[in-house]
Amino acid sequence: MNLTCRHLPGATLIAVAGQVDTRNSAQLEEYIDQHRERLDEHLIIDMRELSFLDSSGLAVLLAAAMLARAHGVGVHLAGLQSMPARLLEITGTERAVTVYDHVEQAIAAVGNLDLANPAEPA
């Protein structure tokens, strides 16, 4: 598994490549925790190069989604390949996250969400 991170206005973008399974799902969870600058920012996960996701990786995504929802934001998954997409579909995980065909769509949607809900003035 290979992980990279970019910080965007109002979001953290993490790209996941390879496979996420019981051997490395804890590494994904730790990476997400360490690279999110703020809990009230959206989390976009670029899954274009993720070929395999098992239940332990799914649990990491669901935990991230629950934490995001508790802080008024969301988890946005982009570019799912067929196997991870099927796992999300059969488990109903699609109801806990927002899924986009392309990462650019997720970035644009998060930007529009931030414009619709501007931060309170200090």
TrEMBL record:
It comes from the Bacteria. Residues 1-110 form the STAS domain. GO terms for molecular function: anti-sigma factor antagonist activity. Pfam families: STAS. Belongs to the anti-sigma-factor antagonist family. PANTHER family: ANTI-SIGMA FACTOR ANTAGONIST TM_1081-RELATED (PTHR33495:SF2), ANTI-SIGMA FACTOR ANTAGONIST TM_1081-RELATED-RELATED (PTHR33495). This is Anti-sigma factor antagonist. It comes from Nonomuraea gerenzanensis. The lineage of its organism: Bacteria, Bacillati, Actinomycetota, Actinomycetes, Streptosporangiales.
